[in-house]
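hey so u asked for the seq, here:
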Amino acid sequence: MVENIPLTPAEQMRRIRQAVNAPEVQSTEQADAVLVDYFSRLDGLRGRIVNLESQMLLKEQPFTSNTPVIGRFIIVVRTFWNWMSTKWYLIPLLRQQNEYNMLVAQTLRETVLTLEATMCAVRDMQLRVTRLEEASRTEKAHSLESDV
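ran it, structure tokens below
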């Protein structure tokens, strides 16, 4: 089953929190592993973006005919008729769709970069939290020893 990619940042963050706060995640190391696994899915997304970019530009296809005798004539007539209809109607639509496709691909690339930056920030914050927790435990241990 293919997982649906969340459409909103709020939904994305809800899923990340849900994964990290799951009952089976008991330590910061496990939480870190969950985050690494969650964000490693970006590699698959990058691959799909590359595939999308290779197919994003639409172009007119030339007419062909397998008819042996009058095939050339059919191609000329169809090309002329297609030129009449495409020049005013289809070419502007193709341009508009190509511009849209390029914008979507660019937005997806930027989204992946943002997610990667977020992943780095989350890792840094997780390290800071771990250090603060260790410092707090050490300080508590020292205060308990000095009270005795």
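The mean pLDDT is 80. Helices lie at 9-20, 28-40, 42-55, 71-147.
lmk if thats what u needed
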